[in-house]
Every structure is written in structure tokens, then in C-alpha cells.
Amino acid sequence: MGRWVVAVFAVLAALWLVPAQGRALGFEVSGSREGQSLNVLVEYDGEYGRVSACVFKVTFDQERMDFAGSREANDGYLVSSVEGNMVQVIYSSRTDNDGLESVSFEFKARKGAGTSAASILVQIEQVAAQRDVPEIPPVSVEYQGEPAASSEAKLLTLYPDSGELEPEFSPDTTHYEVSVPYSVTEMNFGLSASPGARVSVNRRKLGSGGSDTLFRLTVTAEDGMTKGIYTVNVHRGEYAAPTPKPTATPAPDKTPKPDPTPKAAKTSSAAATPKAAKTPKPSSTPGPSATPKKAKTPAPDAALAEGKTPKPSDSPAETPLMEVVVVEKEGAGVFDRLSALGCFFIAIFGLAALGTSLYERVNRRREERLKGKRK
């Protein structure tokens, strides 16, 4: 008996997890769940050729869910409209594609509403295909086994990043006190909450020194409706001026070492006494010059005595004085210098012409000799 019960429960569990699925004349309809989202997928298998247009009518439970939108899996156009609990979607394909392949619809569960045993009805109408399409019966998609959202809104752990909670944390205790030093300017909390719940904190910064700051931690349950509130009152210490550090006693200055006694300068040796200059010998006293002898008085000429004119004598005393004129040659003029320079160049050119003439004669003789040898 026990084995049969286990087998039955196993089958029910398998059906619980398998997504709903149905088929209607060439169209396959399936449903899937992603958290609080319910998805419906319609796929066309090509039984009637290319489908260029059709109308989808999807009926849903508007008290449990809301229509979130539709999306086609291939190129095409979708126009959606919602009237009450029915969504009408018109599909039209592009002219250059293969027509309809698939269309999906998405629904969201409302807050606080369970989607257990939810169902969605899909109807396909006005199908424009290459071949006639008979009337397609509606397909219902059932969603089984979705548990109701949790309504538990509690903190499971809570600890501040500075200071300690008073009293010690407990999920059922909702108010705490914390004291922190003045150096702490903001407060953060490490925490965890009930499965599916989320937590928000109203602040991070602390007030001025000596003040109290109230932190409110709000826990929202998975159902989105139930909330739990925890408060932490944080007291920040007053400002205390830091004790000034004593100034360090300066180290005594090192006694300077006395300057070394300078060595006595060497006494310079006395300059050598200059030797006395030799006394010059006195110059010899010149002897007395010889007394010139008296010139002899010339005897009167006999001619003068006789009254005759004397003949000129060869004596130099009797020769008349001649004036000597020294002619100093003046410096050479510019014209003289140019003339000399011209003569110099003429001489050079003459020598060059003579050398050229000789060189040409020698070459001619060589050429004549070479010609004679060749012959």
C-alpha cells in the first residue's frame, strides 16, 4: 500500500512541474512559468502553407494577472489591444518573409495574488494562408502547482559595522540601541531576511556629535503586501579635542671641536748678502798733447818781389773751393711701381710661352717617332 501511495505522489509531482501544452489543427500552444511571469507560446507547423495574417484572442484571469506584452519570433507586425480579461493580437507578415512561425504572450502575477491553478485560453481566428484553414478550436493552458507568495517579513540576521546591538539580536525584537565614537560618521548593517523578502534602510549618515540618529529597516515580504519594521537608535559620541602630543625635547647641540692650532710658518731664510761690486779701475790720465810746431813763414816769392803776377800753384791752399751738391733720390712713385709689376708679369708670361712651345715640340717628336715605329 505504501508503495502505491509513493508512486501516486511521484506522478502528481511530475505533472506539477511539466508546463501545460495543447494542439489545435497545425498550431501548438504551450505555457511556461518564470517566477511570477506566465508565458504562452503559439507555434505554427506549416500545415496550411504560408500564413500572412491571423487574429489571436487570449483570455486570462485579470484578478490574478496582468498582460505584459506580446512578441513574435520572426519578422512581422503585431497590434495588441486589451478589453477586460481578453487580449486581441492581430498579426500580419512582411511580404519578403516566410510568414507566421511563432508568437508569444507574457503575463505577470499581481501582487499578493497566487497563480496556482491559473489558466489561459488561446483562440486563433481569421487565418489567411495559402490553403483553406478550417475553424480552429480554442486551446486552454493550465498552470498548476504555483505556491502562494510568502507573507513572512522578518530579519533573520542583523549586525552593525560599528558598535554592538543592545539587546542582542532576535528576529522577534524590533528595536535596538547602538553607541559609536565620534569618529564614526555613517552606519551600515549586515543583514538577511525571509526568503523572497527585500529590505530597505532609510539612511546612512549620522548626526552631529552627542546626537541620536534613528535608522528604520523595512522588510517587505514576497507577496509585496506584508511588511515588518525594525529600528536601530544610534548614539554618536561627543567631540573630544585630542590631547596635544608633548613637543620633543630638542637634543643639545654638539660642542664644536676647537679649531686646530695653526702650524708656525717656516721662517724664510735670509736673503744672501750681495757681493760688493768690483771697484772700477781709474782710467789712465791722458798725457799732455804735443805742442804744435810753428808753421814756417813762407818766403816771399821772387815773382812778387819783381812785380810779376804769380802763376797758379798746385798747392791746395791756392785751389779755388768747389761746392758739392748731393742729390737725394726721392721714393719711387706709383707709376714706377706699376711699370715694374708689368715687366714682372711680361717676363712670367714669356717664360710660360717658351715652356709651352718646347713642350709641344717634344710631343711632336714623340708622335713622329711612334708613327715611324708603327710603320
List the helices and strands and how they pair.
Elements: H1 2-17, E1 21-24, E2 27-34, E3 37-44, E4 51-59, E5 65-72, E6 77-83, E7 86-92, E8 102-109, E9 118-129, E10 139-143, E11 155-160, E12 175-180, E13 189-193, E14 198-201, E15 212-220, E16 227-236, H2 302-306, H3 334-374
Describe this structure in words.
This protein has 375 residues and is α+β, with helices and mostly antiparallel strands. 17% of the residues lie in helices and 31% in strands. It has helices at 2-17, 302-306, 334-374, and strands spanning 21-24, 27-34, 37-44, 51-59, 65-72, 77-83, 86-92, 102-109, 118-129, 139-143, 155-160, 175-180, 189-193, 198-201, 212-220, 227-236. It has a 5-stranded antiparallel β-sheet, with no helix packed on it. The chain has a 5-stranded antiparallel β-sheet with strand order 6-7-4-9-10, with no helix packed on it. It has a 4-stranded mixed β-sheet with strand order 12-16-15-14, with no helix packed on it. The radius of gyration is 72 Å and the shape is flat. The termini are far apart.
Chain-averaged pLDDT: 77
> What is Rg?
72 Å
Number of helices: 3
What proportion of the residues is helical, as a percent range?
Answer: 10-25%
* Portion in beta strands: 25-35%
Walk across the major sheet and give the strand order: 1-2-3-8-5
What low-confidence regions span 5 or more consecutive residues with pLDDT below 50? 1-19, 302-307, 312-319
- For the report, how would you describe the main beta sheet? 5 strands, antiparallel
Overall, the morphology is flat
By DSSP, the count of extended strands is 16
- The H-and-E topology, N to C, reads as HEEEEEEEEEEEEEEEEHH
In whole angstroms, the N-to-C terminal distance is 148 Å
Which class best fits the helix and strand makeup?
alpha+beta
